[in-house]
Design a protein that fits this description.
The protein is an alpha+beta fold and 68 residues long. The protein has one helix at 30-41, and strands at residues 2-4, 7-12, 15-22, 47-51, 56-62. The protein has a five-stranded antiparallel β-sheet with strand order 1-2-3-5-4, with helices on one face. It starts with a strand and ends in a 6-residue tail after the last strand.
């Protein structure tokens, strides 16, 4: 577990997970996309991926880019 911007983050497949959003929410991936956009505005190369095993959208950055 690492801290990025005061948040606890975990590594998954060489990527740092900044946040998780349930896929079954009424707004679908929008909350994850909005969160990722805000991180990109801060200079992080954030993107949204789907974790099928847990049915969640993950906002991730490449492992080495998370500490920018």
């Amino acid at each position: 577990m690492t801290l990025i911007g005061g948040r606890r983050c975990e590594m998954v497949n060489g990527r740092t997970v900044l946040e998780r959003f349930p896929a079954g929410g009424p707004r679908g991936s929008w909350p994850a996309e909005e969160f990722a956009h805000a991180r990109r505005m801060e200079g992080l190369p954030a993107e949204v991926v789907m974790d099928l095993a847990t049915d969640t959208f993950l906002v991730v950055v490449p492992g080495s880019d998370a500490t920018r």
